[in-house]
Amino acid sequence: MRVTVFGTGYVGLVTGACLADVGHHVLCMDINQDKIARLRDGKIPIHEPGLEDLVRRNAGSGHLTFTTSHADAVAYSDLQIVAVGTPPDETGAADLQYVLAVAEAIGANMQSPKIVVVKSTVPVGTCDKTAECVAAALGARGSTLGFDVVSNPEFLKEGAAVADFQRPDRIIVGTNSAHARNVMAELYEPFNRNHDRMLYMATRSSELTKYAANAMLATRISFINEIANLAERLGADIEQVRRGIGSDPRIGYHFIYPGVGYGGSCFPKDVQALTRTAREVGYHAGLIEAVEAVNARQKTQLFDRIAAHFGGVDALKDKTVALWGLAFKPNTDDMREAPSRVLMEALWKAGAKVRAFDPVAGEETRRLYGEEPGFELAPDKYSALDNADALAICTEWQQFRAPDFDEMALRLRNRLIFDGRNLYAPERLRDDGWTYFSIGRAPVQPQARGKQA
Ligand code: UDX
């Protein structure tokens, strides 16, 4: 099959490369000439395991091609997948200008019937708006040229996007057109061979499913963070509570890890957009608003603790905090809404310095904060600690899980860790002379040696 994908961002590029890899012919379109030039050279703009290989292989075989021309993109195929960005606008609503611009380009350029597949995460009702936009651009030609608009949300996790696309839990197709349904079934047939994962539904149900899934997952995270905060105050250990509730199959172990709050390109944006959509239809989605509020508070946790430990915000002036982990989660260089940003910005405001290490997100952080005098990037995890007053941890990269604590103690000024991801066993650190703060567990202080009975 021939397929056009609009947008070579995260979703568009993964979609295009994975569809090409199963044998479809895919043309990826982006208005950013630079990006397309780099993609033609096999260079991908994001860090995503397996993606670069996939792009190179399929570009090499001719299954994956690139263009900056709307006319070429529209002419290439009858299946037009829209995967452009929907960043939040200043009010927190999803900005639809890029989606609607593609709709207009399709309407203006189409010479044959099209199926327009909306893969971008868009508020409920956007497929209807997209159809209006295509129809308006099509004008009088609409009497002879038909088109369908289909909702087909993605459920890709950063760091595992290729695998998620290749082995999806479900493929949601929202349409009332039997023709569109058949074409979508053919498109995804290679991913359904052993087990049919297609779920067909009404367009608006499909659009809402995407938001409901992300809001549910975000709710679980804010819920466990709320219980963690309670556990600390009640003298309970959240890790024990987590295992205790996760063993109930109705609850399960996924997405109940306490931490410094969720970040990334999806949860924060989608939770806010859903809240907004609710307001637009006159409904106050109190639970979903609370999920957002709990998360915002959780992101300030590490800073509050560091400040309290040193005796207040003023005491942080000229302190240096080593920071392990910048990305909003491991295996990505994505810094969008990363909890590390809230911590760093608060530390700088208090006059402290940050010496950070992240296995891949360092460059992206430098791009964001290059001018910030309080920011220094360390080449490895241990040199980030040199003469720092404390270590804070924001991302649970594998290489932080079993570090050499002796080496750390030699480099740091104090045996002091603020762990936002509960990576270590508190007793072990206590016995080793560390002061260790984590989430939802009592802080530990070094045990006075020789004083034990
Ligand atoms: C998410 C959804 O999982 C995916 O289905 C959707 O398509 C896009 O949004 P992603 O943003 O890549 O994917 O990251 P995910 O792995 O879901 O993690 C999101 C955030 O939640 C991270 O900041 C992570 O650290 C945090 N998180 C996750 C927790 O704090 N606790 C958990 O138990 C799980």
TrEMBL record:
<comment type="pathway">
    <text>Nucleotide-sugar biosynthesis; UDP-alpha-D-glucuronate biosynthesis; UDP-alpha-D-glucuronate from UDP-alpha-D-glucose: step 1/1.</text>
</comment>
<dbReference type="GO" id="GO:0003979">
    <property type="term" value="F:UDP-glucose 6-dehydrogenase activity"/>
</dbReference>
<dbReference type="Pfam" id="PF03721">
    <property type="entry name" value="UDPG_MGDP_dh_N"/>
</dbReference>
<dbReference type="Pfam" id="PF03720">
    <property type="entry name" value="UDPG_MGDP_dh_C"/>
</dbReference>
<dbReference type="InterPro" id="IPR036220">
    <property type="entry name" value="UDP-Glc/GDP-Man_DH_C_sf"/>
</dbReference>
<comment type="similarity">
    <text>Belongs to the UDP-glucose/GDP-mannose dehydrogenase family.</text>
</comment>
<dbReference type="InterPro" id="IPR014027">
    <property type="entry name" value="UDP-Glc/GDP-Man_DH_C"/>
</dbReference>
<dbReference type="InterPro" id="IPR008927">
    <property type="entry name" value="6-PGluconate_DH-like_C_sf"/>
</dbReference>
<feature type="domain" description="UDP-glucose/GDP-mannose dehydrogenase C-terminal">
    <location>
        <begin position="322"/>
        <end position="426"/>
    </location>
</feature>
<dbReference type="InterPro" id="IPR036291">
    <property type="entry name" value="NAD(P)-bd_dom_sf"/>
</dbReference>
<dbReference type="InterPro" id="IPR001732">
    <property type="entry name" value="UDP-Glc/GDP-Man_DH_N"/>
</dbReference>
<protein>
    <recommendedName>
        <fullName>UDP-glucose 6-dehydrogenase</fullName>
        <ecNumber>1.1.1.22</ecNumber>
    </recommendedName>
</protein>
<keyword id="KW-0560">Oxidoreductase</keyword>
<dbReference type="InterPro" id="IPR028357">
    <property type="entry name" value="UDPglc_DH_bac"/>
</dbReference>
<dbReference type="InterPro" id="IPR017476">
    <property type="entry name" value="UDP-Glc/GDP-Man"/>
</dbReference>
<dbReference type="InterPro" id="IPR014026">
    <property type="entry name" value="UDP-Glc/GDP-Man_DH_dimer"/>
</dbReference>
<dbReference type="Pfam" id="PF00984">
    <property type="entry name" value="UDPG_MGDP_dh"/>
</dbReference>
<keyword id="KW-0520">NAD</keyword>
